[in-house]
């Protein structure tokens, strides 16, 4: 049986752990999307539907979301990972131009700094309460969520599934996270592109 002192020590340690989680959690609301639709066979650029999503739908959705930072990825130095990062940046550019923002970038792959995205978000969060939009390579979503310490509630998604369907991340999906937990998964509902869908946890 645990003594009172042991229970008190355990409670104190739990508080320290929880406190550490919340200290490291980005206080801003974070919206996460993937690159818009790309051609098959790893051809570069966006499809006509992808261009419509990037040029029309995404700016129309996020123009009133008080976005103060747009974060995207860059291709790994060896070129083996992050193949859709140019598409992700192209997806983010029209909104960035509309809002007068530069696109902040972090690398992907083994040679990149895993803490880059989280560190840049935390630095932004220390100086601004505006929201953050992440536009990332669809195939790198699992790694992204791990690196920025964002999780589905109650470990709803299994990190062991490494394919791009593990998160259900179709180009129309918006993940909304607060305090490191994904609270909502919704559809962009782009006219003529997406069917309506909405979900919360």
Summarize the structure.
By secondary structure, the protein is an alpha/beta fold. It contains five helices and seven strands.
Describe the protein.
The structure is a single chain. With 201 residues, the chain is an alpha/beta fold. The chain has a single domain (26-200), classed as Rossmann fold (3-Layer(aba) Sandwich). It contains five helices and seven strands, in the order H-E-H-E-H-E-H-E-H-E-E-E. It starts with a helix and ends with a strand.
What's the architecture, going by CATH? 3-Layer(aba) Sandwich
| The CATH class | Alpha Beta
Q: Tell me the distance between the termini.
A: 37 Å
What structural category arises from helix and sheet content? alpha/beta
According to CATH, what is the topology?
Rossmann fold
| Structural domain tally | 1
The helix content, as a percent range, equals 25-40%
* Rg value: 18 Å
- The general outline is globular
Query: pLDDT below 50 for ≥5 consecutive residues: which ranges?
Result: 1-23, 157-166
Q: What is the number of strand segments?
A: 7
Q: Element order, helices and strands?
A: HEHEHEHEHEEE
Region (Disordered): 150-170
Keywords: Signal
Signal peptide: 1-25
Biased composition (Acidic residues): 150-166
Task: Give the topology.
Elements lengths: L3 H21 L5 E5 L13 H15 L4 E8 L10 H15 L3 E5 L8 H12 L3 E6 L4 H7 L25 E6 L2 E7 L10 E3 L1
Parallel strand pairs: 1-4, 2-3, 2-4
Antiparallel strand pairs: 1-5, 5-6, 6-7
Helix pairs in contact: 2-3
Pick out its properties.
alpha/beta; Rossmann fold; 35% helix; disordered N terminus; signal
